[in-house]
Design brief:
Largest sheet: 6 strands, parallel
Strand order of the largest sheet: 1-4-3-2-5-6
Distance between the termini: 40 Å
Shape: globular
CATH topology of the largest domain: Rossmann fold
Number of helices: 10
CATH class of the largest domain: Alpha Beta
Radius of gyration: 19 Å
Helix content: 25-40%
Bound molecules: pantoate
Length: 278
């Protein structure tokens, strides 16, 4: 397994593979790998011959009062986990290699970030779009795998790839869950025992809303009000619970076709997100 720390190094390796006729899939991560990330790596090895995993805690996607400083950094354990899978190269630049002194370029999308997580995290998706563009330019992958747990992120990347003509195919990978339904997240490790016991209410609520829709419920307002009650009863503070169009992420006024239900809520200082198709 090669560990590259500069864009030139990883690009040279990827180009060698590609001239030999091999395809390459990139799995972008911020490290602190858990089973959810490992499933992205497994998906990557099914779609391409070679797999590159990037590990970079990206400062530009964290707002000033967010958890950049306390975000878990577990590089040695990450390497260990990846050594048990098909991971052919790791791209792990430092912050100053990624953003050289005097860096001044941004990548902004006009509409998709104006919803859901983007409202409470105004710099987040610009930072994601910027770093993912840089990862695509450095790694020149044929495929890039993203988890559906970050559904808005997937839509932002898909739109950006289409708008900027990146020659990369985005592969969506389903959310991996604990047996009680809690979506795996690097932030779950912040939860106290009591908070961990309450957290599955997010997925339970999404499932119950999806079932109501399947049974014919079509008024988003009533569904959302009931959902917020269920989540708040477990001591969680709901940031948003929304039923949206799965492409443009606009709130729907009436459920008449496929929708996505998304939630963000806080348990103490920890912010959790989840979503489901309905
Ligand atoms: O989903 C993540 O871990 C990050 O947002 C990503 C895509 C690696 C960009 O930093």
């Amino acid at each position: 397994m090669i560990v590259a720390s500069t864009a030139d190094e990883i690009r040279k390796q990827v180009r060698e593979w590609r001239v030999s006729g091999l395809t390459v899939a990139l799995v972008p991560t911020m490290g602190a790998l858990h089973e959810g990330h490992l499933s992205l790596v497994r998906t990557a090895s099914k779609v391409a011959d070679k797999v590159v995993v990037s590990i970079f805690v990206n400062p530009t996607q964290f707002g000033p009062n967010e958890d950049f400083d306390r975000y878990p950094r577990t590089f040695d354990a990450d390497l260990q986990q990846l050594s048990n899978l098909q991971c052919d190269a790791i791209y792990a630049p430092t912050a100053s290699q990624m953003y050289k002194p005097g860096f001044q370029t941004s990548v902004e999308l006009a509409h998709l970030p104006q919803h859901l997580c983007g409202l409470g995290r105004p710099v987040h998706f610009g930072g994601v779009a910027l770093v993912v563009s840089k990862l695509f330019i450095a790694c020149e992958p044929d495929f890039a795998v993203f988890g559906e747990k970050d559904f808005q992120q997937v839509r932002v990347i898909e739109q950006m790839v289409s708008d900027l003509d990146f020659a990369v195919k985005i592969v969506r990978s389903p959310t991996v869950r604990e047996p009680d339904g809690l979506a795996l997240s690097s932030r779950n490790r912040y939860l106290s025992q009591e908070q961990r016991a309450a957290a599955p209410v997010l997925y339970e609520t999404l499932v119950s809303m999806a079932k109501s829709i399947e049974a014919g419920a079509s008024d988003p307002k009533a569904l959302i009000e009931h959902g917020i009650k269920l989540i708040s009863a477990k001591g969680m503070e709901v940031e948003y619970l929304s039923i949206v169009d799965p492409i443009d992420l606009e709130d729907v006024e009436l459920v008449t076709g496929p929708v996505r239900i998304l939630v963000a809520a806080r348990l103490g200082a920890t912010r959790l997100i989840d979503n489901i198709a309905a």
